[in-house]
Design a protein that fits this description.
Blueprint: H1 4-10, H2 14-27, H3 37-66, H4 70-93, H5 96-118, H6 120-123, H7 133-142, H8 144-168, H9 177-227, H10 230-238, E1 244-257, H11 260-264, H12 269-290, E2 293-298, E3 301-306, H13 315-334, E4 344-358, E5 364-368, H14 370-380, E6 387-390, H15 391-396, E7 402-411, E8 415-423
Parallel strand pairs: 4-6
Antiparallel strand pairs: 1-3, 1-4, 2-3, 4-5, 6-8, 7-8
Helix pairs in contact: 1-2, 2-3, 3-4, 3-9, 4-5, 5-7, 5-8, 7-8, 7-9, 12-13
Length: 425
């Protein structure tokens, strides 16, 4: 769970990748399976910052020991010890709250103790600057409301140190003035760099989480658009009520693979799905190219409509062109080795429908009405390889299409009907 700022610096180098992997493991040190991504982010931020300060503390330990001040050296050394022990306990217990509280207290108390031991603000090079980490870390880890108490504690501590500073300055440490100034610069720079790295890590991970969230939202949008027309999907996101519309004039098409049920009984399951995917994916591309709306697939049947959800005056012509192209595409696939049995039967009717969204957990956009039922009957009663249409469709088609009478047939639920077969002129 490291930021891309770190990955960019080590890209292309094998040792760098090892560091990234170690830090990723470190970020999950105290994580539990039920922890959210945000909680893991906060944990990783504190662990990384604690190790960074532990490494910096080595400078103080060695310097104070070199100048004969073991008491002052023991304070940053004590922080190193409690951090290592805290990480070991965290890895075993997964109780991040305990580690977090311990670190915040150490950030607050130990710089003040070190400043006292060195003789005040000047002699310690303003060591209290490191306590600034306490409200900053609390803000990143706990949020605004819960971090206020840590901010107040920091100011109370700062005021207390100011009150006793004149007394502490009477017995300052034996560090040379040059070292005092140097450490002041190092303390300011160290606090700034450490805080910047900590917040950069946190901000980068936040941005990464937001990018992941946006990507997930985009995937969800694409999935939603796979089952709903785009205007309907947009309405569904903003209108919690029932979505239903009446359309006076649309054209409905049903297409069915002839004999597929019997053929699928002797085909391998993988081959069945592969063939349907090949055919229906081609149907999807054709429907998109013509600007008509796929409604659903039912087994080996395919349903689409022209003229909704956005009405268009040429809906019938668009659906008729789609039907002819669908038939040509199936003929192309049937010419492939082993697919000579493949044929499609298509039916079209035109008229009014009711359309809407049903379901709450699994949405479906569907159509209802006599036009839908009649189009389905045109398909189921049609000859293989043909496009059967009703009389009203044949009468409304323009000169770019050819229709020939099939005659009067008995249609289930409709009785005798005069139907026509669609073709190119």
């Amino acid at each position: 769970m490291t930021g891309s700022w770190l990955q960019a610096g080590v890209r292309g180098r094998r040792p760098g990748r090892a560091v990234v992997r170690r830090l990723e493991r470190l970020a999950d040190l105290g994580a539990r399976p039920e922890d959210t991504h945000d909680e893991r982010l906060r944990q990783g931020t504190l662990i990384f910052s604690s190790l960074l300060i532990t490494a910096i503390s080595t400078i103080w330990v060695t310097t104070y020991l070199a100048y004969g001040d073991p008491v002052s050296a023991a304070i940053p050394g004590f922080y190193q010890v409690i951090t290592v022990i805290g990480l070991a306990v965290l890895a075993r217990t997964r109780r991040f709250a305990t580690f977090r509280t311990t670190q915040l207290l150490a950030f607050l108390v130990l710089p003040a103790l070190l400043q006292v031991s060195l003789g005040g603000f000047v002699a310690s090079s303003a060591m209290i600057l490191w306590a600034v980490f306490t409200p900053l870390a609390a803000l990143a880890l706990l949020g605004i409301q819960r971090s206020v108490s840590w901010l107040v504690a920091f100011f109370v501590e700062l005021a207390a140190l100011a009150l006793v500073d004149s007394r502490l300055a009477q017995s300052p440490s034996a560090l040379p003035p040059g070292f005092v100034v140097t450490f002041l610069v190092l303390n300011i720079a160290g606090v700034m760099v450490s805080a910047y790295v900590m917040l950069s890590y946190f901000v980068e991970q936040r941005e990464r989480a937001h990018r992941d969230l946006r990507a997930e939202r985009e995937r969800s949008e694409r999935l939603l658009l796979n089952v709903l027309p785009e205007p309907i999907a947009e309405r569904l996101k903003t209108e919690p009520g029932v979505i239903a519309e009446h359309y006076e004039a649309v054209s409905v098409l049903f297409a069915d693979i002839v004999g597929f049920t019997a053929r699928s009984a002797v085909m391998a399951a993988e081959d069945v799905v592969k063939l349907l995917d090949q055919v229906f994916s081609a149907f999807d591309r054709i429907a998109d190219a013509e600007g008509v709306e796929k409604i659903k697939t039912i087994g080996d049947a395919y349903m689409l409509v022209g003229g909704l959800p956005m009405p268009r005056p040429d809906h019938l012509a668009a659906v008729a062109r789609t039907a002819l192209t669908l038939r040509d595409e199936v003929a192309r696939i049937a010419a492939l080795p082993g697919q000579d049995w493949l044929a499609v039967r298509i039916g079209i009717d035109s008229g009014p429908v009711v359309a809407g969204v049903i379901g709450r957990r699994k949405f479906i956009y569907d159509l209802w009405g006599d036009t839908v039922n009649t189009a389905s009957r045109m398909e189921s009663h049609g000859p293989p390889g043909e496009i059967q249409v009703t009389g009203r469709v044949a009468a409304a088609l323009g000169p770019e299409f050819a229709v020939r009478p099939r005659g009067t047939i008995e249609v289930k639920g409709k009785g005798p009907m005069q139907t026509f077969l669609l073709d190119r002129p």
